[in-house]
Amino acid sequence: MNHFYFNVPGWFGFQDVYDRAIALLGKDGAHFVEVGCWEGRSAAYMGVGIVNSGRKIRFDCIDTWDDAHNEYDYDIDGNITMTAGSPKISGKDTFRKFLSNMSIFKDLADIRPVRKKSVEAAADYEDGSLDFVFLDASHGAQDMYDDIAAWLPKLKASQGVIAGDDAEYIGVRVALIKSGLGVPDNPVVMSGGSYKSWIYTPFHMQKSWVSPKSVTEDFSSLEGHIQGSQERLRQVLGINAHE
User: Fold this and answer.
1) Contacts for 167 with CB less than 8 Å, ≥ 6 apart
2) Cα(129)–Cα(131) distance, integer angstroms
3) pLDDT tens figures, 174-231
4) Residue 37 DSSP SS3
5) How many other β-carbons are positioned within 10 Å of the β-carbon of residue 22?
6) What CATH class does 5-237 carry?
């Protein structure tokens, strides 16, 4: 099946992460989740990958499909802000477009839309039941922290992987540090895609997720590709400037 994701509006640069998820975790009966889907650009890529793998992988797509925008940007803390002049698209229209974009998979792949908020949706899954979760909803520090806390227990022990997009944003990095991820004893893998994604895997699986363009990293030093000033990051983390 040929890829068509580039015809779907949206933002998507973590193809390498989805490719590895299918290759390393995509056995028959595997269960994947994407949180934050909009019109389905990244979901379309994953769907084609699943079809082409020939494996029976369930793929749940979670979003409220409300308050979406044609364009958006982030403030320094990773919160979505409205881009001037960008009209709102109603939740109904966005959801309809998502369903239309996914309709090609009707008889080919098990793709299920779940119209709920992230944390609310996570409560519907049993602990230890998921193989792969990708977080690409709100990048605000508290929202991201809540998402990680809600989804991390849902991963299968010793083999589940959780990942997310836009690791260069302060809100994302703060959430990772507060969650105990991306620290010296618990580093994350940084993807080599056009948008930096973070990937947290069981330690014995980390080498499998490191590609020539990726790197294993911890953020506790407050260094790296951070969009915004070190002073602002310290402020968000509540770290004294003289420490």
Assistant:
1) 173, 176, 188, 190, 196, 197, 198, 225
2) 7
3) 888 888 887 777 778 887 656 688 999 887 787 787 765 555 655 554 444 333 434 4
4) coil
5) 19
6) alpha beta
